[in-house]
Structure formats: structure tokens, C-alpha cells
From TrEMBL:
Major subcellular site: other
Protein name according to UniProt: Intraflagellar transport 140 homolog (Chlamydomonas)
WD repeats: 99-140, 285-313
SMART domains with a match to the protein in the record: WD40 (SM00320)
The IFT140 first beta-propeller domain, residue ranges: 2-405
Localisation per UniProt entry: Cell projection, Cilium
Domain (IF140 C-terminal TPR) ranges: 1275-1398
InterPro entries xref list: Beta-prop_IFT140_1st, Beta-prop_IFT140_2nd, TPR_IF140/IFT172/WDR19, TPR_IF140_C, WD40/YVTN_repeat-like_dom_sf, WD40_repeat_dom_sf, WD40_rpt
Length: 1460
């Protein structure tokens, strides 16, 4: 929490009311203009605390109008109502008057961004541009002057275009920044282009006039009209991010213009701002494009120009503002992100921008109103300024300088001090439960307390107070310019360059603790027990032992720069109680606070850290195995703001952390808290151990200290967190004479000490050891540390610790020592839950830790148990939200439970709503409203629900209101109740109409009973039938002899009723066909058939037999089959025999009656191998019998299939060969041969195929060769090749192909194994001889062209061979010789050769062997006929059309030869 120190300026007596204030942009110097009716106008300069600078007083007999500071130099430009412009230098007071240029009141003074240009303007419209050198001296006369003839209102310089800041880059390069060096050496590195350097400052000026015009003056001083608006212009703003010029008129009309490269302006948008028109509005803008306006209303208005949004900020009366308080002026501090507004009642309202995850900046939700600062009078002007971000408030009568100061607070030795105002402290002494207030005559900048003294200082003076009972007395005051201070016993430690001074309470220096120049100047001090830790401006730390008479160095100075990367400066240092550990917070080089807490181990001289941004140290948090991971996740993306060690326990460390801005989607899913207090155990052996973490309770401000068993927090004045207060009684109020002090400190017990706040030191130490050992998982030591404790409260507290650590094994021991049997039983029953968090939550519930139980249920996702928890705790809204969002399976039951709860507390209207949501309203709402009949009837009529109508009708019927009951039964469509009530009223006819119209079974049944009671049998049977109560209808038919209706009713009913009706017909002896039919429909086939046989009901018998199957009685099946055989229905008889599994009888019946065995019938006769009806031999015998029968009927395909299934290969081969031959179905023969994969079948198939015309079907020839090859019948294949060769010779005289076929035949025969070796050898010799003869003939024919004589000789030799034919046909040999002699002209010899041929072959067709040309020539030469003509049907194959067939056969033969 911060307070503002206010300093009223030390104004001279001659000054009157203050009209203007102006801060220097960087230096803490304030210029104040005042008007006095006697002396005129005054200008005075004041320092930070209001000190008047007498050398800079300016006085004129006329009024000042404008004040403007130079942006960097201590140079103030002053404008007067006479047109005079003066430059005032601080602190010398030198005054420089500008040459006389203006003659009327000065309205404009504006410096350029670096101060090289000054613009002046007056009421008459004259504008002058002046040049100022780097030292702030004016360069002669103006460089440009323009007269616009209208009063000048506003002026701004256009910012320079973006470019590199060369000066900043140079400084970075000198400091070793490699990127900056690369930018300067871009030619060598090649990493980037040359520097883009724009002008150092913008020199283009925009000036506005009272007539609504904006003029542009460029760098050369040339003026041009830029734009024009309606009305006088009040403000000009330049939005650098968007390059947009914003213009606001006195009527609050906002216009935005985009500026082009040539200086032209184009209107972007125009809008009327809200606020009082005609008022002198105070308007400021921010760098983010936010306009803030105060127009004397009760709100200030904000416009976001980038997002085109607007909203208002109002005052809050609960924070100390008054009703009707007006806001006059505003000012925004960019560095602090604080918006300040002055009010008409002398208050300064401040809104601080608070960063919130997932919230856009500059929105209303980001602005948080602070506690107001009180000033006197009507605040007319506010202005932030200087590098110290000071605020000046002008209330006309006086000017205040406000400086923000973080409220000082300190705790030590059971005494806490918190600053409540700049000069007041609130003291709380917890050892005596007393509260004191201390007022000082100085502004307190720091406080340090001990058990007996309070020390305060302001950086220049130190005052020591001693407490005596309920009073405080001043024991010493001395001057000391020390910004930090520490106290131990009677020693006060202050700092000065390179040393720490040890002083007495009166200020006497009794010891100096020196630091070397390398170690730096001390800037931080902290005392814990008997040790002092000092931090220097060079990031060194050093620990001193204060337990002796003089302070001694506990260790040498440690340089943290070597250990901490990017370290900028130390923020805070603290040491533990024994001086072994030092915790450090640092600031990085970039000025941002580091997310890490560093720990320096004095004995080991090592530095470690915990990173709150990642939520863990470099090697992870040392923790028990079942640590709650959610707690570790909660530590992520945080920054530490304060840290403390326990005053007596050196292992215990606490740190206060705040949530940093993050856009992480994972963080959005968690309920992150802004401020988290984290406690660790820190030891040399185990490192950092997470002990506990909890969100800072609402109403508390900052962590003050850790002193077991309490955390100590500061709180806002008057606020007190009840759950954090100790049980030792209220704090005593001071006496009436003592100044009243608000309660400013609150304490909260540590988790491990809740309920044990007043325990003795031994118990406290035991609990600390138990917590420590439990944290590291050493259960033996943990139990050893508490084995002597008998207090039930201690065991309960340890059980609470087990909830945090999720150690259920330890919790069971604690519950046992507590004697809490109920909790132990609940914990044992919870072991069935799979999640450890759910089981721990049960323990938390039993211990009353409801918040922890809630968090545990959420963390493990057990929303069903969370729902039950909320219901049991009476948190119905949370229960409903949980059910609606996460536990929808229990949504209706949750609604129902909530409705019951609402009903119990009398909220019947809301209960009604939730009964409806739970879908239980049909019963629950009538029950709830039963006592209020009027409301109930209204609800019934409103809901129009059939179930509710029915309930209401029943209620009315119970009240004997039959007419109304009938109406509501009709609404409910409850036809049974309608019929019932009508029957009760005697209106049976109406009831009959309802039952007939609706067909309602229940209504029909009730009416049927009514008619039966009245002995109206037909009507009763009718309505029993409509009600499908057939047994009752059958009963009435039997009792009353309604046989005709009985059959139909029985057929509609179940089998039992059918049997009963059939027995009735059978006993009666009439309508036996009906009895058979009913027995049949009831499934009693045997009884139906027996009755049909007995009464010779053949038509019924035929009908029954159709439903017989293999599940029927075999004897019954056989009897029925005999019946069908007797009457010539053989097919049905066969089916019944097969159903009875009499396969042989069925087959024999087929043979006797010549019934065709279809494939379906054959399959039904086939018994599977898995069947137990026949043995394997009998099954095969049956299959062979079926096959024999199929053979007799000519169904070779089916017969072959059954032989194959029978597995009788010998018989299969013999019969299949015959079947294949007789069937003539080539396609099936080839198919079955291919799938059978048996040699014999392959051979039989090939033999069969040879009987076909394979010469014209190449496919058949391929199959023949393939089947013989697969069947390993090489001798048969050889014979087939011989047949092929003979065909080539006989039909085509193609001896070459014949030679190839014979060769293949020889190859096959040579591989074949003959039955007799002699026979095989003879056949081989015969084939070899044929091949020789064919070769000789082929040789002779081929040799003829080259050597005809030799060819003739060879052919003549062949003729002499005794067994030439059929290897070489004798006709071919003679024909060759005849052709030769005809060509040679030896016709006589040719004729003689023909005669010899005719003698050998008398019936030969000569033209088959000799060409027609040769025969004609021979006939002419000899003059004799050549004998018989061509043989009938024969033709010269060499000229016939059989050539195509030859080609096909040749191709087939060649392809199959290739396969071999």
C-alpha cells in the first residue's frame, strides 16, 4: 500500500492566487504562475519538497498566460498578456527576453521534441518560429513569422518518422552489445543494411485558430492550410501509432484525419463526444490512443480511439468520496499508469491500471480506484511531472506537491508497526495485546521496531522512541542522511559510502563496518536474531554476527554478479536466524524484477535459486512422491515481491508472489490467484522443500513477517480478517488520552499450527520437525518427533497436515490417536475411490476443511462428489453450476434435491420450478400443493400434462366430483377410467362407445367384465376379444356353446388356449377337423396326426404333414411317409423319410418309383462327416449308392461329385472315366480334372479330349498335353505326339513339324517308364527309326535346290527301305521323283514312276502327290490319261483352305512343345 506525502509550496507573501503550474519533464522543478491584484503577475520555481528558489522569481505588473519548459534544459518559456515572451534559466535565474514580435496576449508557447525550436503565438493570430541552440540560447530574431488574423488556440509538433537512435546505439556498442556493433559494421558483417536514420526531431508544426482552421508550417517555415472544422478548436493530438491527427472543438466534436506524404489531410471519422458543451473541458491523451475528458461532471469519460470504444469512470462513496462531488481536471502518468482527477471537494481521485489476464488493456475493468488523497479547496489543475513522477495539485489558494511513498512497515519480537499516514504509525504489541499510535513531526520514510523501541527516519533525521506500558517517549533524535536503517538491541545500523555505522540510540557512532571500493556502498540492511546482512550497490552481500559485544564478519563478501546472470541491482536481502542462509531478490539489467529468489549458503559458499516463472528450481522442488502437482502448477508465472525468514526457526522461509501477465491458454483454465504466499523448508542437505502455499486472504495487503506459529500481514485501516485473528482475545484499545489508531496488522496461523497457536515451545518444535520430516517423506523421524505428544488437538492438527501432504497412512495414525472412529470409518470406506485426491477430500471433510475438500474434488475431476459436497454444505448455487457444467448425469437428481430443500424452507414457487426441471413435478407438485386446492387446480390447468390431469381426476373422483373427474379423465385420455366411471354411473352405453371408438384394451376388458356380470355374453365376448383377453372369451364360448366363434378366438390366442379348445372339440365329438387344426396350430403334431388318422381327415393330414421336419418324431414321420406312399405322393414321402433320417429307404423309393434325384435332394441325402447318425463306412456306402442312382439316371456330374465325396478312388476313376466319356460336357470334364488334382483323372480327361476334334481346337490340344504332363503319362503323351506327327504328314505333308513332334515324342518316351522293358526298348527303336527316315526325306527335299541329283539319289534310296511307310508316305517319295523328272523333261521316266506308285497304291489319288501342272505336262508328253481323277471329297491340300487350320494347329503344337 502507498501513501502520498504532500508538500505545500513555500510561496512568497507577495504571490496571490495560483493560476498555472508546470513541471519540468525530467527535473524536480515546478513553475507556478500567480496573480495578485496589487503586484500583478509572478512566476516562481519550487523544488521537490516545495522549497522556493528565490533566484528565479519573476514579477511583472501584468498577468502571465502560458508556461512551457524546455524538454531537456532547465529553461522556462514565459508568456504574458502584453505579448512579452521571456526565457528563465534555473537555478541561476538568468532572464532572456525575446525580441518584440507580439503585441497582444500570448496564447501559444511550444517547444520541439529536442528543444531546438520554439513556437510563440498570440491572440491576434501572429505566429513566430524561433531557433534555440544546444545550450538553450536564442539565435537572434525569429526564423519565420505568419499572421493568421484569428486567435491561435493550439499548437503541436509532428513527431519525427521512425529511425534508429544513433546515440543510443553508440552507447550500446561501447558497452559491448554485439547487435549494435553489427548495425554499425553492416558492410563487413553483411547481416543488415545501412542504418535508417530519420531526423532527430520533428520540425513540422500544426497550429489551430479560433475559426476552426488548422495550418501546417513545414521545416522551412512555409505555412499552408491543412484542414478546416466547424467551431473553435480546443485541442490537437497526434496519434503516432496510426499517423492520425485528432482535432477537438469547444463543442466536443472529435475529428480524425490521416496525413499523406505530401501534407494533405483526409477525414477518417467524426464523432460527437459526451459531456457538457460550453465548459472548459480538461482533455489529456495517452500513448495508447486513449482520450480522457473531465468536464465538471461526476464522471470522467474515456474514448479509445484505436478500438472506437468509450466508457466512464465514477467515484465510489464507500471509499470516502462525497455524493455529488464533481471532477474538474485530469492528468495521466505514463510511467505509473495512474490517472489522477481533481474534485470540487478538495480530493484527488486516482485510478491505477491493473493488469489482468485475458483482459484487453485500457478497458474499464483495468482501472482500479484508489483511496483518495485529501487537499484543501477546489482542485482546478493537476499535472504529473519530472523523472520522479511527482504530482502538482493547484487549488488556487495553494499548490501541493505530492510524492508517492510505499507505506513503511516492520515486525520484530512480537511488535508490528505499520504506517497509516505520512506522520503516523500504528503499533501492535502482540505479547501484551495492546495497540498504540505514534505521531511524528516528520514525514516517516522508514520504521524499525524492537521489543522495547521504535525507530523512525526520513532520510535526513532519525528518531528513537521507547515504549513504557501504553505510552511512547522520545529517547533520542539525531541527524543522519541514511536511506536504510536496521536495529538490534541498543544498536542502530546506518549506511554511508563504503561503510556501515553502528550507532547508539542517541546517534553516537561506536563502530564502523568498512567495505572496499570493489564491494561497493551499502544500500540494503536486514537483521534477523543476532545476524546482520548487508547488500551493496555492486551486488555484494556480507553477513555480520551481532551476538558479541562488537559486530564481526560472519563471512567474506560474496559477489553475486558472478553467480546471477543479467543482474542489475539488489532489491532485498534477508538472512535466517542462524545466519547460514541469505535470500536475495534482484532486479535485472533491463530494470525488471527477476522472477527468481536466490539463496546464498554461507557455509558452502554456493548460490541456488527458485524460479517462480517456471514454478521450480533448476532440478525441481524436493518433495514427497505424492505431492499435489496442481500446487506446483500454481507457482508458475509469478514474481516474488517480498520474502522473510522465521525469527527463530532457521529452516523456515516464506515468500509473497504476484501473478505476472500471461497469455497462456493453460493458465486461463486454472483458477489462478493474484497473490500467493509460499512457504519453504530450506536446508543444506535437502535443498528447497515446498511446505505450503495459500492465496493471500481478502482484506489483507502485504506480508510483514513469519514468526511461528503465525504469518503477519498488514491490512487496510478498519479492515480485519476474522479468520486470521488469534484466539487469545481482542487487542486492547489505548487509553482515551492516547491517540486512536486503526487496526493495521492481522495474523494468520500456519497450516501446521491451526488450533495450536498457544502451544508451548516443545510442542511447537515437535510440530515443526514433524512437518519437516513429513515433507521429505521420512516417516520414522516424523513419528519419533511427536511420539511423546498426547494432546488430541496436536494430533488433529497433524491430521490436517496430512490433508495438505496427501499422506493417508499418517492420517490413519492421527485419527487413531484422536479417537475419531467416524472419520476413520469414512476414510476406510473411501479407499474404493480410485483417485488419491478424492480419498484425501473425505479426510478433509471429516476434519472440517471444507475449502480443501472442494479444491481436491476439483483437482481430480470428481464433480459428482463435488456436487454431493455442495449439496451437503448447502451451497446450492455451486451444486447447480457443477451439475449443469460437469456432472450432467446427476443434473436431474440435483434439481430434485434442491427442490426438496426449497420446499422445506417454504420457497414453494421456486421448488415448483426445480421439480419441473427434475421431471418429478407430476407427483411432487400435486403433493406439495395438496393443501392449497385452488393453486393446485390452477397449476393443473396451466401445465396441460396428461399425467397431472389423471392425478387431478383421481383426486376429484375421490371427492365424489364425478362430472369434473370425467372431464379431466378425458383431458388425460385415460379411457379405462372413463369407462370405469361411466359403468359406475350406470351409463354402460356411453362406456361401450368409448371402448369401441378408442380400442383401448384395458377399457374393453373392464367393459367386458361389466357385460359378463350382466350376462350379456355376446357383448362380453366381443369386448374380451377387443381387449385381446382371448382365454376369457374362449371360456364364455365353451360355457355357452358358441362353437362357431370358438375356433376363431382359439386361433387368435396362445397355444394353451388352442389346446383347450381342441380338447373341447374332441370331447364333444363334432368338428373333428377343427380339433386337428387347433392341435396342429398349437404345435402338437402327433396328436393332430393321430386324430387325423383316426378320423381319416386326409385334407387336414396333408396340411399337418407340410409342417413336419427333422425335429419331429421319427415314428410320426415314418407313419406319414407310409401314408403318402400309399396315396402316391412319393416326393413328400421321400422328404419325410429323409427328415426321419431313413436315407436308404428314401433312396430305394427313388429307385423304385424312378424319381429324379436333383442336386438339392442329393444334398439332403448326404450325411456330413460330423454326423453321428451313420458310421463312416455306412456314410460312404450311402454316398456310393446315391452316385450309382445318379449314374443310372444319366446325371454324371452329380454322380461324380458323390463318388468324390465317398473317397472311393478306384471306383471313382473307373466310373468317372465312363461318366466323362458319356456326358460329353467338355467344359465340366476339364474343370473337374483341374480341381481333382489326381493323375488318373488327368489321364482320363486327356484320353477323352483326344476323342474330340483337337486338330481344329488348339485349346483342346493344349489341355491334352497339359493333362498328360500333370498325370505323368509320358508314354501316352509320346503316343499323342506321334499322332500329331502323323496328322502333319497325312493332312499337310509338313515333315518338318512332324519331325518336331516325333522328337518330342522321343523325349517323352525316353523319360517314361514302360510296363515291360523289352516292349519299351522296341518302341524306342521303332520311334528312332521313324525319326531317321523323316530326317532323310527332309534332307532330300532341302538338298534339291542345291544338288538335285544327290537329292534324287537319296529319295530313291528311301523308296528301297522296306518299312518306309507310314514314317514317310510312299506317295510323297514317288511324287518328289515324278516332279523332278517332269521338271527335267524326262516324262517317260516320270510316267514309269507313276505306274510303280499306282501298283503299290491302286486306289491312290495321284493329284494328291503330284501337282496338276506336272500331271498336265506329263499327259501332253505321253498322250495318255493319268488314270482316275481326284478321289471324292479329297482336294489338293496345298491349295485348299485348310491352311488356316494348319496354322492354328501349328501354333498350339509349338507352344506346348515350348512348355516341355
Amino acid at each position: 500500500m502507498a501513501v502520498y506525502f504532500d508538500h505545500c509550496i513555500d510561496a512568497p507573501d507577495s504571490s496571490g492566487s495560483h493560476s498555472q503550474v508546470a513541471w519540468h519533464p525530467t527535473q524536480p522543478v515546478l513553475a507556478v504562475a500567480s496573480n495578485s491584484p496589487t503586484t500583478g503577475g509572478n512566476i516562481d520555481l519550487y523544488l521537490q519538497q516545495g522549497e522556493h528558489v528565490e533566484s528565479c522569481h519573476v514579477e511583472r505588473p501584468f498577468q502571465p498566460t502560458v508556461l512551457r519548459w524546455h524538454p531537456t534544459k532547465p529553461l522556462l518559456a514565459l508568456g504574458w498578456e502584453t505579448g512579452e515572451v521571456l526565457l528563465l534559466t534555473h537555478p541561476s535565474g538568468e532572464q532572456t527576453q525575446l525580441p518584440a514580435t507580439h503585441s497582444t496576449c500570448i496564447t501559444l508557447l511550444e517547444w520541439s521534441s529536442s528543444g531546438s525550436r520554439l513556437v510563440t503565438g498570440d491572440q491576434s493570430g501572429v505566429l513566430a518560429l524561433w531557433k534555440v541552440d544546444a545550450r538553450g540560447r536564442l539565435h537572434g530574431s525569429y526564423i519565420a513569422k505568419h499572421d493568421y488574423t484569428k486567435p491561435l488556440t493550439c499548437c503541436i509538433f509532428r513527431p519525427a518518422p521512425p529511425g534508429e537512435d544513433v546515440a543510443m546505439l553508440a552507447r550500446a556498442a561501447v558497452s559491448g552489445d554485439q547487435n549494435a556493433l553489427d548495425m554499425f559494421n553492416w558492410r563487413k558483417t553483411g547481416k543488415a543494411g545501412p542504418l535508417t536514420m530519420g531526423p532527430q526531431e520533428g520540425l513540422v508544426v500544426y497550429v489551430s485558430t479560433a475559426d476552426g482552421k488548422v495550418h501546417c508550417v513545414d521545416e522551412r517555415g512555409v505555412s499552408s492550410l491543412l484542414l478546416s472544422v466547424d467551431g473553435s478548436i480546443q485541442k490537437l493530438f497526434y496519434l503516432k501509432r496510426r499517423d492520425v491527427l485528432a482535432v477537438i472543438t469547444e463543442t466536443l466534436l472529435l475529428s480524425q484525419y490521416t496525413l499523406g506524404p505530401e501534407g494533405e489531410a483526409q477525414e477518417l471519422m467524426k464523432v460527437k463526444l459526451s459531456g457538457k458543451s460550453g465548459q472548459n473541458a480538461d482533455i489529456v491523451s495517452t500513448d495508447t490512443g486513449l482520450l480522457v475528458t473531465a468536464t465538471g461532471d461526476q464522471v470522467i469519460r474515456l474514448w479509445d480511439l484505436e478500438r472506437d470504444e468509450n466508457y466512464v469512470l465514477a467515484l465510489d462513496e464507500s471509499m470516502g468520496f462525497e455524493k455529488g462531488e464533481l471532477l474538474n481536471c485530469v492528468s495521466y502518468c505514463t510511467a505509473k499508469e495512474i490517472l489522477a482527477a481533481g474534485t470540487s471537494r478538495g480530493r484527488i481521485a486516482m485510478w491505477r491500471m491493473v493488469s489482468q489476464p485475458n483482459s484487453r488493456p485500457d478497458t474499464k475493468a483495468q482501472w482500479k480506484l484508489q483511496t483518495p488523497t485529501e487537499v484543501q479547496g477546489n482542485v482546478s489543475q493537476l499535472q504529473w511531472g519530472s523523472s520522479l513522477n511527482l504530482l502538482a495539485a493547484n487549488s488556487l489558494s495553494r499548490v501541493l506537491i505530492l510524492c508517492e511513498h510505499v507505506m513503511s512497515a516492520h515486525y520484530s519480537q512480537q511488535v508490528a508497526a505499520v504506517q497509516v499516514s505520512p506522520t503516523q504509525l500504528s503499533l501492535t504489541m502482540f505479547s501484551t495485546n495492546t495497540q498504540l499510535s505514534l505521531r511524528s513531526d516528520m514525514h516517516i520514510k522508514g520504521v524499525c521496531v524492537t521489543k522495547e523501541a521504535v525507530t523512525v527516519w526520513n532520510g535526513k533525521q532519525v528518531t528513537v522512541y521507547e515504549s513504557s506500558g501504553t505510552t511512547l517517549r522520545n529517547t533520542g533524535t539525531f541527524q543522519c542522511e541514511s536511506q536504510v536503517l536496521a536495529v538490534h538491541d541498543d544498536n542502530i545500523y546506518t549506511v554511508e559510502p563504503n561503510r556501515v555505522q553502528v550507532r547508539t540510540p542517541q546517534g553516537t557512532v561506536k563502530q564502523l563496518l568498512a567495505f572496499s571500493e570493489a564491494e561497493g556502498n551499502p544500500v540494503l540492511l536486514s537483521v534477523c536474531q543476532g545476524h546482520l546482512v548487508v547488500g551493496t550497490d555492486t551486488a555484494h552481500i556480507k553477513v555480520f554476527d551481532l551476538t558479541r559485544r562488537e559486530a564481526k564478519a560472519h563471512c567474506s563478501a560474496k559477489n553475486l554478479v558472478e553467480q546471477v546472470p543479467s543482474l542489475g541491482a539488489l532489491r532485498s536481502v534477508k538472512c535466517n536466524a542462524n545466519g547460514s542462509q541469505v535470500s536475495i531478490l534482484v532486479t535485472q539489467v533491463n530494470g525488471r524484477p527477476d522472477h527468481k529468489v536466490y539463496f546464498y549458503d554461507v557455509e558452502m559458499d554456493t548460490v541456488s535459486y527458485f524460479d517462480f516463472f517456471t514454478g521450480r528450481p533448476p532440478s525441481g522442488v524436493s518433495q514427497a512422491e505424492d505431492t499435489d502437482r496442481r500446487t506446483l502448477t500454481e507457482l508458475r508465472e509469478r514474481c516474488p515481491v517480498s520474502h522473510f525468514w522465521d525469527e527463530s526457526e532457521p529452516r523456515l522461509f516464506v515468500c509473497e508472489t504476484v501473478l505476472t501477465n500471461t497469455d497462456s491458454t493453460q493458465m486461463d483454465q486454472l483458477d489462478r490467484v493474484d497473490v500467493l504466499v509460499v512457504t519453504f523448508f530450506c536446508t543444506q542437505e535437502h535443498g528447497l522443500l515446498l511446505q505450503d502455499s495459500f492465496p493471500k486472504p481478502a482484506g489483507l495487503q502485504a506480508l510483514l513477517a513469519l514468526d511461528v506459529p503465525y504469518y503477519y500481514f498488514s491490512c487496510k485501516p478498519g479492515e480485519k480478517v476474522l479468520q486470521t485473528e488469534e484466539a487469545s482475545g481482542p487487542v486492547q484499545s489505548p487509553s482515551p488520552a492516547q491517540a486512536q489508531s486503526p487496526h493495521m496488522v492481522s495474523r494468520r496461523a500456519l497450516r501446521d499450527f491451526q488450533g495450536l497457536e498457544t502451544c508451548e515451545k516443545a510442542t511447537r518444535d515437535a510440530m515443526l520437525n514433524f512437518s519437516f520430516y513429513l515433507t521429505i517423506g521420512n516417516m520414522d523421524e516424523a513419528f519419533k518427533s511427536i511420539k511423546l505428544i498426547k494432546s488430541e488437538a496436536v494430533w488433529e492438527n497433524m491430521a490436517r497436515m496430512c490433508v495438505k501432504n496427501q499422506r493417508l497412512d499418517v492420517a490413519r495414525v492421527c485419527l487413531g490417536n484422536m479417537g475419531n472412529a467416524r472419520a476413520a470409518r469414512a476414510l476406510r470406506e473411501a479407499e474404493a475411490e480410485p483417485e488419491i485426491e478424492a480419498r484425501v477430500a473425505v479426510l478433509a471433510l471429516q476434519l472440517g476443511m471444507l475449502d480443501d475438500a472442494e479444491k481436491l474434488y476439483k483437482s481430480c475431476g470428481r464433480f459428482d462428489l463435488l456436487n454431493k459436497f455442495y449439496q451437503a454444505a448447502g451451497k446450492w448455487q455451486q451444486a447447480l453450476e457443477t451439475a449443469e457444467t460437469h456432472d450432467r448425469i446427476h443434473l436431474r437428481s440435483t434439481y430434485y434435491s434442491y427442490a426438496k430443500n426449497l420446499e422445506a424452507i417454504g420457497e414453494k414457487h421456486m421448488a415448483l420450478v426445480f421439480y419441473e426441471r427434475s421431471d418429478t413435478h407430476r407427483f411432487e407438485v400435486p403433493r406439495m400443493l395438496l393443501d392449497d386446492a385452488q393453486s393446485l387446480e390452477t397449476y393443473v390447468n396451466k401445465m396441460k400434462d396428461k399425467n397431472i390431469y389423471k392425478w387431478w381426476a383421481q383426486y376429484l373422483e375421490s371427492q365424489s366430483d364425478m362430472e369434473s373427474a370425467l372431464r379431466y379423465y378425458e383431458y388425460a385420455e385415460d379411457f379405462l377410467s372413463l369407462v370405469r366411471v361411466h359403468c359406475y354411473l350406470g351409463n354402460v352405453q356411453k362406456a361401450s362407445e368409448i371402448a369401441n371408438d378408442t380400442g383401448n384394451r384395458a377399457a374393453s376388458y373392464h367393459l367386458a367384465r361389466q357385460y359378463e356380470s350382466q350376462e350379456e355374453i355376446k357383448q362380453s365376448v366381443h369386448f374380451y376379444t377387443r381387449a385381446q383377453a382371448y382365454n376369457n372369451a374362449i371360456r364364455l364360448c365353451k360355457e355357452n356353446g358358441l362353437d362357431d366363434q370358438l375356433l376363431n378366438l382359439a386361433l387368435l390366442s396362445n397355444p394353451e388356449d388352442m389346446m383347450e379348445a381342441a380338447c373341447y372339440y374332441e370331447e364333444k365329438g363334432s368338428h373333428m377337423d377343427r380339433a386337428v387344426l387347433l392341435y396342429h396350430k398349437a404345435g402338437h403334431f402327433s396328436k393332430a396326426l393321430e386324430l387325423a388318422f383316426a378320423t381319416e381327415q386326409f385334407a387336414a393330414l396333408q396340411l399337418v404333414a407340410e409342417d413336419l421336419n427333422e425335429t419331429s418324431d421319427p415314428a410320426l414321420l415314418a407313419r406319414c411317409s407310409d401314408f403318402f406312399i400309399k396315396h402316391g405322393h412319393y416326393e413328400k414321402a421321400v422328404e419325410l423319410l429323409l427328415a426321419a433320417k431313413k436315407y436308404h429307404e428314401a433312396l430305394q423309393l427313388c429307385l423304385d418309383q424312378n424319381l429324379t434325384i436333383t442336386e438339392e435332394l442329393a444334398e439332403s441325402m448326404t450325411v456330413t462327416k460330423e454326423s453321428k447318425d451313420l458310421s463312416e463306412e455306412a456314410r460312404k456306402e450311402l454316398l456310393e449308392s446315391i452316385a450309382d442312382c445318379c449314374m443310372r439316371q444319366g446325371n454324371y456330374h452329380l454322380a461324380t461329385k458323390k463318388y468324390t465325396q465317398a473317397g472311393n478312388k478306384l471306383k471313382v476313376r473307373a466310373l468317372r472315366y465312363a461318366a466323362l466319356l458319356k456326358s460329353g460336357d467338355t467344359e465340366k470334364i476339364v474343370f473337374f480334372a483341374g480341381v481333382s488334382r489326381q493323375k488318373e483323372i488327368y489321364v482320363m480327361a486327356a484320353n477323352y479330349l483326344q476323342s474330340l476334334d483337337w486338330r481344329k481346337e488348339p485349346e483342346i490340344m493344349k489341355n491334352i498335353i497339359s493333362f498328360y504332363t500333370k498325370g505323368r503319362a509320358l508314354d501316352l503323351l509320346a503316343g499323342f505326339y506321334e499322332a500329331c506327327a502323323q496328322v502333319e504328314i497325312d493332312d499337310y505333308q509338313n515333315y518338318e513339324k512332324a519331325m518336331g513332334a516325333l522328337t518330342e515324342a522321343y523325349k517323352c518316351l525316353s523319360k517314361a517308364k514302360g510296363r515291360s522293358p523289352d516292349e519299351h526298348v522296341a518302341r524306342m527303336a521303332d520311334l528312332e527309326h521313324k525319326i531317321t527316315l523323316v530326317k532323310r526325306f527332309i534332307q532330300a527335299r532341302r538338298l534339291y535346290e542345291d544338288d538335285p541329283g544327290e537329292a534324287v539319289r537319296l529319295c530313291e534310296a528311301l523308296i528301297e527301305e522296306p518299312d518306309l511307310d507310314p514314317a514317310v508316305r510312299i506317295g510323297d517319295a514317288y511324287g518328289f521323283l515324278v516332279e523332278h523328272h517332269c521338271q527335267q523333261g524326262s516324262f517317260q521316266v516320270a510316267y514309269r514312276m507313276l505306274e510303280e506308285l499306282q501298283k503299290l497304291l491302286p486306289s491312290l489319288n495321284i493329284s494328291y502327290y503330284v501337282s496338276q501342272g506336272s500331271l498336265a505336262a506329263l499327259q501332253r508328253a505321253v498322250g495318255l490319261p493319268m488314270g482316275r481323277g481326284h478321289l471324292p471329297g479329297r482336294a489338293d491340300r496345298r491349295d485348299s483352305g485348310g491352311e488356316d487350320d494348319e496354322v492354328e494347329e501349328d501354333e498350339a503344337l509349338e507352344s506346348n512343345q515350348g512348355d516341355l
